């Protein structure tokens, strides 16, 4: 089914659903969940208010849809192999690409982070899984076997949080060149891995392997 648009054309239903997700992502990134109303989401999307119930049941359903959409887009990016001949080059390119993507899709990224602060268990599960899968891709590339050692697991979760906050600062200020952000990120990662190894040498990754990341 299609509906009329202001210029007399017909707008596909999927476009209106996507508009709602885009508008909701923007508003949820600007203000807390409880401060955003479905009325203003529909208004910003330029669609009928009733379409929220039709597509998502309620505001929580729409909120979950924005989280999933942002997560799926990020997962697609992460699964695309980065360019580079060496581990260091691939890591630099992957992180640079990640930061650039988040900068271009700031609303979706900030919605993801805001969702992670909430107490909704379904939202929290989506966020936690997405962040851990990103950390696992790095560990897999370094040849770390699963299950991941608890010290290494905790270290990587902390590093992912560092990266997220670095990107948030970049989105808000844009006063540090991306290449410097990449250097900060890699330095933090290598320092984190070396410290984890110094605490527990059997974490499954040797200092020589870590050294390759900063080469």
From TrEMBL:
PANTHER family: HTH-TYPE TRANSCRIPTIONAL REGULATOR PKSA (PTHR30055:SF226), HTH-TYPE TRANSCRIPTIONAL REGULATOR RUTR (PTHR30055). Residues 14-74 form the HTH tetR-type domain. It comes from the Bacteria. One of its GO terms (molecular function) is DNA-binding transcription factor activity. Pfam families: TetR_C_46, TetR_N. Keywords: DNA-binding, Transcription, Transcription regulation. This is AcrR family transcriptional regulator. Residues 37-56 bind DNA. PROSITE patterns: HTH_TETR_2 (PS50977). SUPFAM superfamilies: Homeodomain-like.
């Amino acid at each position: 089914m299609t509906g009329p648009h202001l210029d007399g054309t017909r707008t596909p239903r999927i476009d209106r659903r996507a508009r709602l997700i885009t508008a909701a992502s923007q508003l949820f990134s600007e203000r807390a969940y409880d401060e955003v109303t479905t009325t203003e989401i529909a208004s910003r999307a330029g669609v009928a208010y009733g379409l929220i119930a039709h597509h998502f049941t309620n505001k929580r359903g729409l909120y979950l849809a924005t989280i999933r959409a942002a997560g799926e887009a990020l997962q697609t990016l992460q699964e695309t192999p980065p360019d580079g001949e060496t581990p260091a080059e691939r890591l630099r390119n992957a992180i640079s690409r990640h930061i650039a993507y988040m900068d271009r899709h700031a609303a979706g990224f900030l919605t993801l982070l805001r969702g992670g602060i909430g107490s909704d268990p379904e939202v929290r599960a989506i966020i936690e899984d997405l962040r851990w899968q990103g950390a696992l891709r790095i560990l897999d590339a370094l040849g770390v076997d699963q299950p991941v050692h608890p010290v290494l697991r905790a270290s990587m979760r902390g590093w992912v949080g560092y990266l997220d906050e670095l990107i948030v600062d970049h989105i808000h200020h844009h006063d540090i060149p991306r290449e410097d952000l990449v250097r900060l990120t890699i330095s933090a990662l290598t320092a984190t891995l070396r410290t984890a190894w110094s605490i527990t040498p059997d974490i499954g990754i040797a200092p020589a392997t870590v050294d390759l990341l900063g080469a």
